[in-house]
Amino acid sequence: MIIVLLGLPGAGKGTQGELLSSKLGIKKVSTGDILREAVRKATPLGLQAKEAMDKGELVSDDIVIGIVKEELSGKNCRKGCIMDGFPRNLQQAKELERMKIKCKAVHIKVPEEEVIKRLSSRRVCPNCGALYNLITNPPKKDEKCDICGENLIQREDDREEVIKERIKVYKESTEQLINYYRRKGKLIEINGVGSAKEVHRRLEVAL
Ligand code: AMP
């Protein structure tokens, strides 16, 4: 079974995906994380993806579908997985359907003004990937990671002008997937406003 997390950038897909992954004991697959790691290591994949990512645009379907196929064929996904950031458009959703794996989609609903606030105060640890928010989930000391002590950074695409582009891309390409999964009777919708714990509880009940 694959659980697809849908929602605006900043709706909490990464955080809820992590919590759900620990709870269910299945892997979280984040195409965004895989691409960022490739960019960081400057692999051929990273070099191809960087330009689109920096602008907040989608990376080509071929690249992303290749990544997902490879992940899903790995032994860590044998029990299924939680998808954070895939599918992002109709073509990707149809490709996932062709893989004939049972799937459910969860739409984490958060108003646009709220995600803009969240994303501009989001910080990440470049070393271990831990996620923070300067308002709702600040690190204990300065802007340093609680886990490994590294200085936290703002994601390149969490700058205001890129956030606006990402929201535009979401509305043009990804939002239609909510209806796509609804029509198939595979959609669950939850309110994504509140603390990570509160939203996680709603998600558990809804699943
Ligand atoms: P995310 O961390 O999910 O917000 O993804 C960060 C960036 O990676 C996006 O803005 C896209 O440029 C790229 N990306 C991640 N997942 C996909 C996908 N499924 N299709 C195309 N581009 C993606």
Can you give a write-up of this model?
It is a single chain. The chain is an alpha/beta fold and 207 residues long. Helix content is 48%, strand content 15%. The protein is built from 9 helices and 7 strands; from the N terminus they run E-H-E-H-H-H-E-H-E-H-E-E-H-H-E-H. The protein has helices at residues 13-24, 31-40, 44-55, 61-73, 90-98, 112-120, 160-174, 176-183, 196-206; strands at residues 2-6, 27-30, 81-84, 103-109, 122-124, 131-133, 187-191. It has a 5-stranded parallel β-sheet with strand order 2-3-1-4-7, sandwiched between helices. Strand 5 (122-124) and strand 6 (131-133) form a beta hairpin. Helix 1 (13-24) crosses helix 9 (196-206), helix 2 (31-40) crosses helix 3 (44-55) and helix 6 (112-120) crosses helix 7. It is globular, with a radius of gyration of 16 Å. The two termini are 12 Å apart. The model has no long low-confidence stretch (mean pLDDT 94). Adenosine monophosphate is lined by residues 9, 31-32, 35, 52-53, 56-59, 64, 85-86, 88, 92, 157, 166.
